[in-house]
From TrEMBL:
InterPro entries: CHCH, MIC25. GO terms for biological process: cristae formation; DNA damage response. Keywords: Disulfide bond. It comes from Pogonophryne albipinna. GO terms for cellular component: MICOS complex. The keyword Membrane does not apply. Signal peptide: none annotated. The keyword Disulfide bond applies. Residues 35-68 form the CHCH domain. This is CHCH domain-containing protein.
Amino acid sequence: MNLNSEKYIQSKEEFHSAASKTEANVRSRNMNPVCSGLQAQILSCYRDNGDQTLRCSDLAKQYMQCINAAKKPNRSDCDVF
């Protein structure tokens, strides 16, 4: 086996090892739903007011504020709505 083959095998093993570690870290994150209470309210509002969706604008504004707050680091749990 020549030097290039040995380097290739070593690099391949290191790559697969690093990829496995990264994959384990990414998969272990739990994504909890945010603003689900507001989401349910706004969907219900849109169903009930299909021809007058402006009646839901206050809920839509609150929902967008909650979503934007959830995107910020160290957010407070905005799913209390």
